[in-house]
Amino acid sequence: MNNSQNIIARSATTTTPPQVRSHVDEVAKLIDVSKCIGCKACQVACMEWNDLRDDVGECHGTYDNPTDLTANSWTVMRFSEHETQEGNLEWLIRKDGCMHCAEPGCLTACPAPGAIVQYANGIVDFNSEHCIGCGYCITGCPFDIPRISAKDQKSYKCTLCSDRVNAGMEPACVKTCPTNCIEFGTKEDMLARAEKRVGDLKALGFRDAGIYDPAGVGGTHVMYVLHHANDPNRYSGLPKDPRISPLVGAWKGATKPIMSAIIGITAFAGVIHYMTKGPKEEPEEQAEHGQDDVPPPHSLGYDATRPRGEDR
Amino acid sequence: MKMPRDRLIRYSPLDRANHWTMAMVFVLLALSGLAFFHPAFFFLSHTLGGPVWARILHPFLGVVLVLLFYAMAARHVRRNLLGENDVQWARQIGDVLDNRDDKLPPIGKYNPGQKLVYWSLVVSIALLLFSGVIMWRPWFAGFFPIPLIRFASLLHAVSAFVAIVTIVVHVYAAIWVKGSIRSMTRGWVTRAWARHHHGLWAREQEEAQRREQQP
Questions:
Q1: Rounded to 5 degrees, what are φ and ψ at B11?
Q2: Contact A143, A47 (CB under 8 A)
Q3: Residue A181 is assigned to a ligand binding site
Q4: CA distance A92 to B101
Q5: Residues of B in contact with A254 (CB under 8 A)
Q6: Domain at B10-213, CATH class
Q7: Can the peptide bond before residue A111 be classed as cis, meaning omega within 30 degrees of 0?
Q8: What is the complex's ipTM, to 2 decimals?
Q9: Is residue B189 within 8 Å of residue B7, measured between CB atoms?
Q10: What's this model's pTM, rounded to 2 decimal places?
């Protein structure tokens, strides 16, 4: 990998990863849902650039094709037909895929050192060579994005074309988008552009237009402009306030050092107990051998066989 | 085989074979499980042939443990219910730890500490099974909703923690009480050992032997 010296977070790693080359701007992909025409060119570009070919699926009566993200389909257009209170139909199309969270749940949950990394530019990448196929990333992700391949049992998702971005190019989906619905640049620039676009939408009458850059996961490096930012759920279940589940937080947070320490302390307590109190020695067979009722030396609490006065 | 007169049989060959199979399986499970639990333990995944093999084998070994454990546990339930003098013995836990055994009341085949180990494992291994199946990829996890998998993952870690601490205590007790390791490797204890540590059980065994010897 080229990006081996700009890693700001690394899965299952308790020391600082190599990040000397971290003087870079954070990047972001901005998806303006209001400009999407649902052509799926982004899906095709993603397949082409990343050399992915999914199985031919079946039609489920919607435009969603494939119907869900898979290990071979890292981005999918999700179509939802929403009826407004005034009785109008809104056809809401959202390009789904990894959000590249600033606080990634997948990376938090991953037990394999280095299988998931976060670069200084904000991209969260799977280093599949180190993936062990446990699926903890799926458990940790608040957006239900990673998918495990049935072929190799490794987890896959959008890389934000980290290879292209590293070489100064924009992601493949951005390059191909015919309506400029998908844009790419520094996070700062994308936020500014999104604000302008939100202003335009508000002027057009979309009072609830807004930017989707959820703070619960520290912000994301894939952002949406939504005409109904007050109700992201309308866009095929985009979560309103995504965050790493408290269950995952407990599982991968405080319990790890506390429980590890208690296991160690228990074993250590055993050592100390043995050294201070000693074992319960095998009882003498008094009845059988008719010995005198002299207590064995160890039960006296000191070494009775040693002459007195030699203690110090 | 005839036992010498001063010995009592404590564990049958089947019990012993089962125990040591479980012991090996448990150690492998604990090491590979800890590897996924904390990065500090990740190197332990090599005990099962590397992290990917550890991920593959851990759940199957878990099933083996469950089968062996409950086959054994089912046969020993009665001996692990609260018995005569157990409460008094537990109250005198200070005397137990200080090795003042002469002050302790006579108890049955298992003392309250051993019964606690038994029930702790009965519960934690059951929880490990249920949570483990829910987390098990690629076979079962896909059938469960992600929030449930999250809960199962936390439960699995906590139950494993309870089981591991219990086993640490169990192993230490075996080292502490001389004669007990031999009872699990060779199957017998001396009469003196039985009278000293499990007075009620010794009396019961000796009476049974006497009845057998009478025509």
A1: -135, 130
A2: no
A3: no
A4: 76
A5: none
A6: mainly alpha
A7: no
A8: 0.92
A9: yes
A10: 0.91
